[in-house]
Design goal:
The protein has about 900 residues and is α/β, with parallel strands linked by helices. Helix content is about 40%, strand content about 15%. The protein has 26 helices and 25 strands. An eight-stranded parallel barrel has the order 7-8-9-10-11-12-13-14, surrounded by five helices. Helix 13 packs parallel to helix 15, helix 17 packs antiparallel against helix 22 and helix 22 packs antiparallel against helix 23. The N and C termini lie far apart (about 85 Å). The N terminus is likely disordered.
Amino acid sequence: MRIFNELNYTMKYLQLLFLCLYVSFATAQNITVVSDPSSPRAKFGAEKLSETLSAKGFKVTSVNKFKKSKDKVIVIGEKGTDFWKKNAKIDDSKLTKKEGFQIRTQNNVIYIEGADASGTLYGALELSDEIKASGKLPSEINIEDSPEMVLRGACIGMQKPVYLPGRDVYEYPYTPETFPWFYDKALWIKYLDMLVENRMNSLYLWNGHPFASLVKLKEYPFAVEVSDEDFKKNEEIYKFLTVEANKRGIWVIQMFYNIIVSKPFAEHYNIKTQDRSRPITPLLSDYTRKSIAAFIEKYPNVGLMVCLGEAINTVDDDVEWFTKTIIPGVRDGLQALGKTEEPPIILRSHDTDGPLVMEKSLPLYKNLYTESKYTGESLTTYTPGGPWGETHKQLSALKSIHIENVHILANLEPFRYGSPDFIQKTVKAMHSVHGANALHLYPQASYWDWPYSADKTKSGERLLEMDRDWIWYKAWARYAWDSKRDRNEEVKFWDKDLASKYGTSQEAANNILKAYEETGEIAPKTLRRFGITEGNRQTLLLGMFESQLVNPSKWRVYPGFHESCGPAGELLLEYAKKEWNKEPHSGELPTQIIAEITEHGRLAVEAIDKAEASVTKDKEEFARLKNDMHAYKAFADFFSEKVKAALLVLRYSYSNDIADLDKAMPHLEKSIEYYELLVNLTKDTYYYANSMQTAQRRIPIGGDDGNNKTWAELLPHYERELANFKRNLDKLKSSKDGKIETKEGKPWKPTEVIFIDEKPGTYLVKTGTKVYGTDISELTKIAPELQNLKGFTFVENDQNEKGTHLKFRNTKAVKLVVGYFNSDQKRFLLPPSLETDAAGNAHGQAEVILASAMNLKELPRVNIHTYTFQPGENKLDLGKGKVLILGFIDADQTITPRDVGYIDAGEKAAIDWLFY
């Protein structure tokens, strides 16, 4: 009987279900969608809208011409077109803004009208979103909207975490072996759909020299660096990409660096692919000009972004190259097409004088856009200023389109970042402080390893960066469209979004949002107050050594960084000095920041842990997000303890009271405990901290050969630092006068090379020598390591006007000892800077080996760098400005970096020796 009743119940349930489905389909509302078949963007928008309607149970008919109907009709078109004039009559006098749209209801017709093709697309997508959110077609709708920012774009690096064999930085041909994902059409559709869903309208492809993968030149047939088969594949995928992007209102922009040539071209002419110190030559100019012309002719709808910096030496060369090679190349391409309308050229204001280049270029070419990094290669503040801010203001004052580039994010890798509040305030600052009207957004992490994130998963499957960092793209795009959205309403918006993603209550979603926003402050605050640089050279979330905190100048603090990347305040050394002198403090303080970041970490972990029980969807991703929040807290706690220790060490430099060092010890020990926690949180969840895994990474430690990219690798270094501190503290306590007798460095072993072409004169590196033959250049103090060397003489004016050049042959590995004057005056050559010269460590020259190692009578003190050269024929080409070439030494000998301490009167001696 029981079985019979259950069977009877099941039959009734199925009958009822069938009846409901029958009624649903029988009463499905008919909708006719009318769109312009000649407009790819209107057509694409209509398709997306029709998909949404069909998914909601509507019966959709698509036509090209409006006819009166009892059923609902949706008309989609662009203002002023023949299609719109024939199919719609609504007031569009206020529809004037670029990419704007209006949606209006008249009787049973919904009109979607765009101010242009993109506005038409966005209007269709807006109605589609309304239907998805409400589950129904609105009976009446009145919407008008347009974006604040003219360009809203994302970036993909056609680059890799490591150099290709036999190649230099940025040199990555477009091949299936190097970039298999580039030929994956399904991946491109997924990415482009993500962009258009977020209303992004530009896509930047970054590469050093893309032309040799995309065009062939009859004058230089040997310059192509891909096979014929790969060349055809590149043509096909590039065409596919541009067509699909255009449907979605996305402008593809190809970026390139200057001056870089293809490897086969360089080999043909026996030159380097890139050489910052070389002059512009007719050959280099002709090849590049013809490459650009061929690209413009072949891909007229693809934009160009020009980076003059990094592989060109001087601003004068930048101006000449842009005005006499780049712009003429674009004009040649237009002439070949029979076009006169100028396409935009985007000038990247990096390692150049953007305002000056624009001043010289605008009389020649009017349609120039400008781009500059928001606050360098990290996200640090929503109160930008300083000298970098002035550059933005000067460029935006030109009333062209000025683009803010949110670049690299070296301080956010690899943990998830998604603070809508921080991002919204940042976009507001782009408008109000910098005067910008466009956004160029880098991936939040893993730029060099795109399309993957750094996450390890249990299955071993790599996560796609675009999926993992969905909130990063959505938040930036949302506020690039409209930065003035009400904060309270925004909290509700993100709560709803997060509740949907993780299947939680609104309360739990608000806790997830709180966790995002609390951790959103940690890395920005930490870097802007304690960092050496905002660039790739520093991986913040791997930490910093005490030696870097107490003696940052040895690591060359990047000029303009602290003034430009955060609110006014005090750096660690300044704070310690004021504390000792009992002077009043001002602005944002180191002690304030470490208190704030630890509290942000505590609140983030508290919030994410509260949310966990409510999660019903995407649990694996939530677990990864939760782990990131705990990792951020561990980092904040670790870093705060290091700063507390550093403050006490700096106090000791004034007090000479060993008790201060005793007080520092527990903080250093505690920092290790927090770092061990960080190791445990990351060892099974991340492949790496930083996606650039080359010798360009220097802080906290060199990333040579892909090393030192995980927290587990860094832990022994921090443990060694603690052991060194304990040892030196014990030595201090056991000494009679409270001082450690320091051992002087031993003289380095010099060696000889054979000079080619011309042998320079020499001088003995000893006190009394006048290196430039003038009284002011007399050597007065010299580190013991340098006292056996023979320097090479150069004429002062020649170094200032022509640079410094040597050509030589060596039979074994050698190091060239180079002395850089500690000055930012133009008459002195600046030391290698990885922020502006990506090849600035090609010979191991980026780091100071001996700080404050030489004094000259009336010239700035000198820091020593070394350049390593392998056996063979080599040359040194340095830019314009005075620099000391102090001789060659055997590369195999052990060299101990140190601060020699030859400082000026009144300066404080460095205290970092405590950690070595």
